[in-house]
């Protein structure tokens, strides 16, 4: 079914947290949907990190200015594997002046582009902007982390301080937001908070066109390049298992031009959205640092996942246990890939209901955006995505 909308053309600014890949892939998917609503993205704001560059796959998807602004970010340990919470707070406090300059630039961009809507993918600068300015436009906040604001979400037992810190930080990113969309792997009851709505994962359209195969290798996604040594060490003990690993390592990008083939069964690749998805569709299973988006993509494709939360990253700790509860795979404290190898033959694919939930995403998202502009009329609902095809 085609969308027919009477909505007048609207100017949109996207704001994306630069930490990790998930928020970026969500922004790419939403950009495509906005075209059906006669909405045009004029600018993309990305919260910068000194540890990472904006991936090429993200830049290639936008033909509008991408403005990188200094933003609060995690501080990792010297091994580039763990999160240091105390140092994160201290370092960000020292940068308040820089963040204030970023907020001023955001204010100028909103006025310059005469924005009707800001869609915020968990970028804290937008919440900080709301403290000092009353936005002359609507603000829609979208992130998986907002499910933590839902009273029905079940946190892991204990960890009271980390739980409260995560909740309060998530609230700060939604300051003055007109609507909050909490992305979840499953539905939850309607919240009493009227502007909080639980929605399915926002996955890239390329995912739905993939041919699913099993080419007998393990796919590894490393948010932190410090884990590369762990993978190399494991491979030396298990050289017969074929591994393809994606990483943000500058060594792989600069010294090996984006692909380091250690031997015939171990390769490291620089981040590449299209290549990563194709390999996910043809792997036997995936090991990941428990990022929400990559786990959801694997669930949709029916691939079992070993989830290894980054040390000190409570959000990923929650992700791993939540995803295991719904049958995505198993979690572990370390990249002990033998756990995944043993688990794969017993993995029960239960992605049918998950497909149905994901296929409702576009309808819910477009309905939410329409509700922010009640003067417009939503005539028809969007067509659901088609399930990825299985190759026998």
What is the secondary structure topology, with strand pairs?
Blueprint: E1 10-17, H1 22-34, E2 39-48, H2 56-59, E3 66-70, H3 85-94, H4 96-112, E4 117-121, H5 124-132, E5 138-143, H6 160-172, E6 179-183, E7 196-199, E8 211-212, E9 218-222, H7 228-237, E10 243-247, H8 250-255, E11 259-263, E12 266-270, H9 273-282, E13 285-288, H10 292-301, E14 305-307, H11 314-325, E15 329-331, H12 337-343, H13 352-358, H14 361-372, E16 389-390
Parallel strand pairs: 1-2, 1-4, 2-3, 4-5, 5-6, 6-7, 8-16, 9-10, 9-13, 10-12, 13-14, 14-15
Antiparallel strand pairs: 11-12
What summary fits the major beta sheet?
A: 7 strands, parallel
**How much β-strand is present in the residues?**
15-25%
Second-tier CATH architecture of the largest domain: 3-Layer(aba) Sandwich
Class by SSE composition? alpha/beta
The backbone outline, from C-alpha atoms, is globular
> What is the CATH topology of the largest domain?
Rossmann fold
For the secondary structure, the number of strands is: 16
């Amino acid at each position: 079914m085609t969308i027919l909308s009477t909505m007048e053309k609207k100017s949109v600014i996207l704001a994306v947290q630069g930490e990790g890949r998930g928020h970026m892939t969500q922004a790419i998917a939403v950009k495509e949907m906005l075209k059906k609503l006669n909405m045009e993205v004029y600018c993309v704001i990305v919260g910068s990190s000194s540890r990472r560059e904006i991936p090429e796959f993200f830049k290639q998807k936008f033909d509008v200015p991408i403005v990188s602004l200094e933003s609060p970010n995690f501080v990792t340990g010297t091994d580039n594997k763990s999160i240091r919470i105390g140092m994160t707070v201290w370092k960000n406090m020292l940068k308040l002046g820089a963040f204030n300059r970023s907020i001023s630039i955001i204010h100028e961009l909103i006025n310059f582009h005469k924005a009707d809507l800001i869609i915020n993918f968990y970028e804290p600068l937008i919440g900080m902007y709301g403290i000092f300015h009353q936005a002359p436009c609507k603000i829609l906040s979208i992130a998986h982390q907002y499910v933590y604001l839902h009273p029905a979400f079940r946190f892991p037992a204990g960890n009271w301080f980390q739980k409260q810190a995560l909740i309060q930080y998530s609230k700060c990113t939604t300051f003055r937001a007109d609507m909050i969309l909490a992305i979840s792997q499953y539905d939850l009851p309607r919240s009493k908070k009227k502007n909080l709505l639980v929605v399915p994962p926002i996955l890239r359209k390329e995912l739905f066109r993939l041919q699913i195969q099993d080419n007998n290798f393990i796919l590894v996604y490393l948010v932190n390049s410090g884990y590369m040594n762990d993978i190399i060490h494991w491979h030396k003990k298990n050289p017969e298992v074929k591994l393809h690993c994606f990483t943000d390592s500058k060594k792989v990008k600069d010294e090996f031009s984006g692909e380091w083939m250690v031997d015939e069964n171990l390769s490291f690749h620089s981040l590449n959205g299209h290549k990563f998805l194709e390999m996910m569709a043809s792997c036997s299973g995936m090991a990941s640092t428990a990022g929400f988006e990559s786990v959801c993509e694997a669930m949709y494709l029916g691939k079992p996942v070993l989830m290894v939360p980054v040390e000190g990253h409570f959000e990923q700790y929650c992700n791993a246990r939540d995803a295991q509860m719904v049958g995505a795979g198993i979690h572990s404290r370390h990249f002990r890939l033998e756990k995944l190898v043993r688990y794969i033959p017993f993995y029960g694919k239960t992605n049918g209901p998950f497909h149905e939930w994901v296929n409702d995403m576009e309808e819910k998202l477009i309905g939410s955006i329409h509700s922010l502009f009640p003067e417009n009329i939503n005539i028809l609902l969007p067509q659901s995505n088609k399930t990825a095809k299985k190759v026998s």
